[in-house]
């Protein structure tokens, strides 16, 4: 019951709002909203551990045990690292044929606080490694299931977990219906400032929750290049140098011999120069005001562990004006085998273009590098500031009511991101005023959370048997 995609990825031209709404509502007969509720793994479903092992083939072998170790921390950690597994599973689920720019990994931990170019803190999606045009339902189901996984892991009552899941889906549906009534520019400029978020939270949150929220926001305000400099740099012979914390953070000078170190540094200077050429003129002038100082390899995230990621320290006016840039490898999206190849040959550009489409406001220095050969492989990279007010919510601190409040915010944010690129009027008409879609996806989320625990157990068994190596001693 998967509607075939026969139109361009995002098509709305030459159709009135009434025609778009009628088209969205008409899809219900081919793909009933109730059809989104069921899922069972097909008999020929690939082994989930095999899926992860196949991903590992293109990654740095020494880092793969860290990835497995992080995934084995909990079922939610496994879920976060298993985007490729869920992409495979979602490919067989019902879709309406209405496409948007997908995050591709829209779980509850991939939302957070950022510093907008006007330096106000905003709430938005924060990870776009898997971004690609595709069925809007896939992001919604991944988000909903992540709340089910989190509630189960926290030991919440089934009723409380289901309430949080349904709140998340309802928030998405109601926000999409609201965006369907707005003008294009209103949708494009919509964003959730942290000040507004606090005001909304004050209506339903306790004084204890408000205090915790303000504490997290205060930490975000301080999370910038100056904070990174204090934490990641020490002065050696009068010069700032990135500290060594192997294998999570390894300065370039420790990765290669002394004679090859200079060549590696020059290579990075060259690559940053090529990244510079992809920036708009005003950002180019800003970047040119900084001087390259040092370079290190860094391990980041859960699902990304094993990909190549570099951090570069630059200084501006003086050493008290640092800038940390991160060049992160971009592989093919895990959605590509199921949603079609990217229109961009460079996956760094794919990530950046997707982020620009989905985020209300993005890092001023976000850009990409042309493909180049490193360690014998041709790799694509995208570049951004390492820290710029970025802060994610610690899900382990949320009680059932707070999880529901968090779901409201995430649901609204995902709808806003989808409304920018997809046919928001058709999607809203399909969703409708009632809760038929909410209940169906809620049932899917609960069911998928159970299978996620089974897959988590399969990875744990693989580690116990020696099939894979997992290092659990690294944060």
Give a quick summary of the entry.
The protein is of the alpha+beta class and 475 residues long.
What does this structure look like?
The model is unreliable at 2-9 (pLDDT under 50). The chain has 2 domains: 17-220 and 394-465, no CATH class; 225-385, no CATH class. It is built from 19 helices and 14 strands. A hairpin with a 5-residue loop joins strand 2 (111-115) and strand 3 (121-125). It starts with 16 loop residues before the first helix and ends in a 10-residue tail after the last helix. The strands form 4 sheets. It has a 6-stranded antiparallel beta sheet with strand order 8-9-10-11-13-12. A 4-stranded antiparallel beta sheet has the order 5-3-2-14. Helix 7 runs parallel beside helix 17 (400-421). It has 475 residues and is of the alpha+beta class.
Give the helix/strand layout:
Layout: H1 17-30, H2 48-56, H3 64-71, H4 75-81, H5 83-90, E1 99-102, E2 111-115, E3 121-125, E4 132-135, H6 136-153, H7 158-180, H8 184-189, E5 192-193, H9 194-204, H10 207-222, H11 225-232, E6 233-236, E7 239-242, E8 249-251, H12 252-255, H13 258-276, H14 281-288, E9 291-298, E10 309-315, E11 322-330, H15 336-339, H16 347-358, E12 367-374, E13 377-385, E14 391-392, H17 400-421, H18 424-431, H19 436-465
Antiparallel strand pairs: 1-4, 2-3, 2-14, 3-5, 6-7, 8-9, 9-10, 10-11, 11-13, 12-13
Helix pairs in contact: 1-18, 3-4, 4-6, 6-7, 6-17, 6-19, 7-17, 7-18, 7-19, 9-10
């Amino acid at each position: 019951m998967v509607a075939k995609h026969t139109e361009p990825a995002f098509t709305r031209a030459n159709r009135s709002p009434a025609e778009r709404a009628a088209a969205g509502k008409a899809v219900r007969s081919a793909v009933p909203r109730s059809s989104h509720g069921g899922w069972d793994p097909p008999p020929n479903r690939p082994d989930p551990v095999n899926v992860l092992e196949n991903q590992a083939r293109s990654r740095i072998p020494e880092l793969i045990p860290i990835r497995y170790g992080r995934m084995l921390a909990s079922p939610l950690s496994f879920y976060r690292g298993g985007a490729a597994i869920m992409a495979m599973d979602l490919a067989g689920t019902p879709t309406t044929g209405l496409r948007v720019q997908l995050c591709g990994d829209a779980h509850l931990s991939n939302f957070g606080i950022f510093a907008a170019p006007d330096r106000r803190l905003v709430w938005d999606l924060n990870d776009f490694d898997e971004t690609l045009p595709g069925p809007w339902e896939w992001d919604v189901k991944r988000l909903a299931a992540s709340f089910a996984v989190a509630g189960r892991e926290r030991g919440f009552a089934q009723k409380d977990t289901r309430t949080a899941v349904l709140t998340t889906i309802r928030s998405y549906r109601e926000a999409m219906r609201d965006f369907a009534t707005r003008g294009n520019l209103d949708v494009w400029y919509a964003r959730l400032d942290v000040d507004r978020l606090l005001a909304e939270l004050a209506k339903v949150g306790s004084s204890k929750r408000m205090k915790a929220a303000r504490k997290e926001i205060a930490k975000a305000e301080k999370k910038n290049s100056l904070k990174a400099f204090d934490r990641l740099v020490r002065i050696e012979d009068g010069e700032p140098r990135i500290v060594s914390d192997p294998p999570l953070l390894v300065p370039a000078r420790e990765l290669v011999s002394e004679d090859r170190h200079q060549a590696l540094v020059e290579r990075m200077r060259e690559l940053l120069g090529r990244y510079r050429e992809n920036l708009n003129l005003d950002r180019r002038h800003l970047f040119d005001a900084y001087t390259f100082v040092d370079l290190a390899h860094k391990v980041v995230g859960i699902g990304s562990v094993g990909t190549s990621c570099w951090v570069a320290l630059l200084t501006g006016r003086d050493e008290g004006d640092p800038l940390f840039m991160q060049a992160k490898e971009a592989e093919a999206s895990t959605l590509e085998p199921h949603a079609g190849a990217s229109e961009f040959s460079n996956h760094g550009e794919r990530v950046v273009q997707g982020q620009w489409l989905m985020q209300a406001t993005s890092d001023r220095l976000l850009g990409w590098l042309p493909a180049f050969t490193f360690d014998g492989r041709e790799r694509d990279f995208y570049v951004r500031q390492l820290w710029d007010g970025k802060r994610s919510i610690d899900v382990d601190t949320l009680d059932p009511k707070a999880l529901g409040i968090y779901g409201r915010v995430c649901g609204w944010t995902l709808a806003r991101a989808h409304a920018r690129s997809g046919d928001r009027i058709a999607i809203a008409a399909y969703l409708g005023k009632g809760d038929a879609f909410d209940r169906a996806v809620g049932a899917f989320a609960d069911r998928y959370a159970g299978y996620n625990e089974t897959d988590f157990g399969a990875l744990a068994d693989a580690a116990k048997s020696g099939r894979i190596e997992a290092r659990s001693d690294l944060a």
